[in-house]
Specification:
This protein is α/β, with parallel strands linked by helices. The chain contains 10 helices and 10 strands.
């Protein structure tokens, strides 16, 4: 994995070469760059696709979490991405973000408008309901836990209720990359629990509504129609997606049928990906 030094951390990234414009893909709160494998396989080589590991995740450095003060106004992740693009010699990109990556995308597009050609927000980018944290708790709970082996870790991930019946090669690669194998053969997630807990306290409650009108880039919002454990516990409701799209000056909403917050990325969604391609090419 190549790395780029930004501020006090080296950020790892994966690239799918392509002949067209660059797409910068940013993952969710406990995720990594391989969350984009399925989408990148469809978007490259028409586009150059770059997926970054945010600090504290994947093979990026794990510095101490930023203090709360750094999350005010212009918090650390947009600043990281600005420096990341400078290091790659890229002036503008189309930005695709999922979950926390969509929240970061809202802030990035609002504070660095010259950087973002087009914006795709995947099941995120709105003000979250307080109960949303409960929906992602199973993903958070794996952090810092040591499993007897890699096979045991993968079995536990396969058993997550919102992935039941959806396990495929994309999820397998994603969680294998997520796993750190210790000298005694045990396994644990690479993700820094300290960083994620800081983000959960400071970023998930962030009021994004004041940033939405500042976004000038054409925007596509994708909303997953299915809940995580019930029909009504999705991260973004249809109504929330509509409010988000109406708050951005040039945005529209696409509801992705039979997809939840995770399977919208890891299951092949031909209709949704075709719409994304049309939007990017427009």
């Amino acid at each position: 994995m190549p790395h780029i030094l930004v501020d006090d951390a080296r950020l790892a990234y994966h690239e799918w070469p392509g002949r067209g414009p660059t797409l910068l893909c940013v993952h969710g709160i406990t995720a990594n760059c391989h969350a984009w494998d399925c989408w990148a396989g469809q978007l490259a080589p028409a586009y150059r696709v770059i997926a970054v590991d945010l600090r504290g995740r994947g093979e990026s450095d794990k510095p101490p979490a930023y203090p709360v003060e750094a999350h005010r106004d212009l918090f650390c992740y947009p600043r990281d991405l600005d420096a990341f693009l400078d290091a790659l010699g890229l002036e503008t990109v189309s930005y695709i973000g999922h979950s926390l990556g969509a929240m970061i995308g809202v802030l990035f597009a609002a504070t660095y408008p010259h950087r973002v050609r087009k914006l795709v927000l995947v099941d995120g980018g709105h003000d979250l309901r307080p109960e949303v944290t409960a929906g992602i708790r199973p993903a958070l709970d794996r952090l810092g836990v040591t499993f007897p082996s890699l096979d045991d870790y993968l079995a536990r991930m396969q058993a997550l209720p919102f992935l039941a019946g959806h396990w495929n090669r994309y999820l397998d690669r994603y969680f294998r990359y997520d796993a750190e194998i210790l000298p005694d053969g045990t396994a644990r997630s690479r993700v820094s629990r300290d960083v994620v807990e800081a983000d959960t306290e400071t970023l998930l409650p962030l009021a994004l509504r004041s940033y939405h009108p500042k976004i000038a880039a054409p925007t596509l919002v994708l909303q997953a129609s299915a809940g995580l454990l019930t029909d009504s516990d999705g991260i973004m409701s249809r109504e929330e997606g509509e409010r988000l799209a109406s708050a951005i000056q040039d945005a529209r909403l696409l509801t992705v049928a039979r997809a939840n917050h995770y399977t919208i990325l890891f299951d092949f969604q031909p209709a949704a990906l075709s719409e994304v391609k049309r939007f990017l090419a427009r």
